[in-house]
Specification:
The chain is 50% helix and 14% strand. The chain has 117 residues and is of the alpha+beta class. One of its GO terms (cellular component) is cytosolic large ribosomal subunit.
Length: 117
């Protein structure tokens, strides 16, 4: 039974779901804005906000913790720490925005754009 299990499963097992969210986070950091399904965007939001909060305090320990989420891709960590996190140094949270779009024509799944504020 799934009592008190709040995370969306997205039709995947745990490792696949972690890889999906990590890949979405990587794309969001690189491009600043991505279009995906509404459920994936809502699942990505808390993940990416925790990463940005960690990146605001630029220490070697935080860089190592961030790079562990992205398979040691230093380019992603560098962009997160030097470009994205300084914009939100004074902000208490809420670094992303989800904009709902029209349903996809092929399967009518609800679409959304997630972007940095």
């Amino acid at each position: 039974m799934r009592h008190h299990k709040t995370m969306r499963t997205l039709g995947r097992v745990r490792r696949q779901r972690q890889a999906l969210v990590s890949g979405l986070a990587r794309a969001l950091i690189l491009h600043g804005k991505i279009q995906t399904t509404e459920a994936k965007a809502k699942e990505l939001r808390p993940f990416i906000e925790k990463l940005v909060t960690r990146a605001r305090n630029d220490t070697i320990a935080n860089r190592r913790l961030l790079s562990a989420h992205f398979n040691n891709e230093q380019m992603i960590v560098q962009k997160l720490v030097t470009d994205i996190a300084p914009r939100y140094r004074e902000r208490a949270g809420g670094y992303t925005r989800i904009i709902k779009l029209a349903p996809r024509a092929s399967d009518s799944s609800r679409q959304a754009v997630i972007e940095f504020v």
